[in-house]
Amino acid sequence: MIDPSSVRGRWQAVSSWHGPLSLCAAAMAVLAVVSGFGLLADGRTVMGEGVWLKPFKFAVSFGLYAITLAWMIGQVRRWRRTSWWLGTVIVAGFVVPEISVITVQAARGVRSHFNFATALDETMFMVMGGAAYLGWLMTFALGVFLVWQRRVDRAMGWAIPLGLVISLAGMSVGYLMTAPTPDQAQQLAGGFDLATIGAHSVGGRDGGARMAVTGWETGAGDLRVAHFFGLHAMQVIPLVAMGLRLLSRRFALLAGDGVRTVLVCVAALGYGGLGAVLLWQAQRGQALVSPDAPTLAAVAILAAAVVAMTGAVLGIAAARRPRTPARGTWTAGSTARV
Prior knowledge:
- By secondary structure, this protein is mainly alpha-helical.
- Helix content is 67%, strand content 2%.
- The strands form two sheets. Strands 1-2 form a two-stranded antiparallel ribbon. Strands 3-4 form a two-stranded antiparallel ribbon.
- The two termini are 40 Å apart.
- The relative contact order is 0.08.
C-alpha cells in the first residue's frame, strides 16, 4: 500500500526543482520526439547524416543537462534566489539560443556548426558560440555556489560540484573544435574565404566513416567523444553517490558517510582521467574504435589506479570498524558471558 506521506514528500522534493529548467527539459523531450519523426519523414542529409539527427542528439543532451541542473538547484539551501536566476539565464541565454539555431539550420538543410557559407550562416554560428560561452560561465558560477552549500549528505555534496567541474572541462573541449584546422589556417592566411572554419575530426575530414547514432568518426580522431563524455559527468558522478548510498543499506563498509565521500572522489578522478585519455586519443588523430598500445596502456593504468584506491579505502574502512565480540567471550566491564 502506498504511503501518502511518502508520496507527498517526494512531490515536495520535485516541486523544489528549478521551474524554467524543468520546463526546458520537457521541451527538449518534445523536440527529441519531433526530430525522431523528422528522421523518418525527411530524407535530406547534411554531411551524410539525416538533417534531423543533430537536433535529436542535442535535444536529448540538453534535456539531461537541464533536468540535472533543475534538481541540483533544488538541493540549494544558501543563495537560493541567486541560484534560481543563474538557472534562468542558462535557459534563456544558452539552451534556447543554441537549440534554436541547430533546429532552424536543420530545417533549412544546412550545417549549424562551423558554417561560414553565407552571412546568415556565419551569424547563426556566432550566436551559438556566444551562447556556449555564456552557458559555460553560468554553469561555472552555479558550481561555485553549490560548493559552498551545507552538506547534509557529504558524498552527494561532493558529487555535485565534482560532476560540474568535469562537465565544464567537457564543455571546454567544444572550443577546440572551433579553431581552424591546419589546412584551413593555411587557406585563410592566403586570403581565401572559406565556407567551413573548424572541425570536430582530427587527422581526417568531417563526414567520413562514422558510428551509428552518435556519428563519431571511425577513421579519424573525434573531439566530440571527450566533449560528450565529460559533459555528462554531472549526471554520472551524482548517480555514483546515489548508488553508494543504496549499497550502504546492505554493506556495512559503506555505512560511513566519509567512506562514500572518498569513493565518490575516486570515481570522479577516474571519470575525469578517462575523459583526458579520450581527448588525448582524439588529438592524435585516433578513432575511438581503433585505440593503439599507448591508449590501451593509459586506460589500463587508470583502471588499476582506481581499483587500487578503492581497495585501499575499503581496506582502511574495514580495519577501523569496531569488532563485535564473539559469543562466549568476556567483554570489558561485564560480569556475565555474552
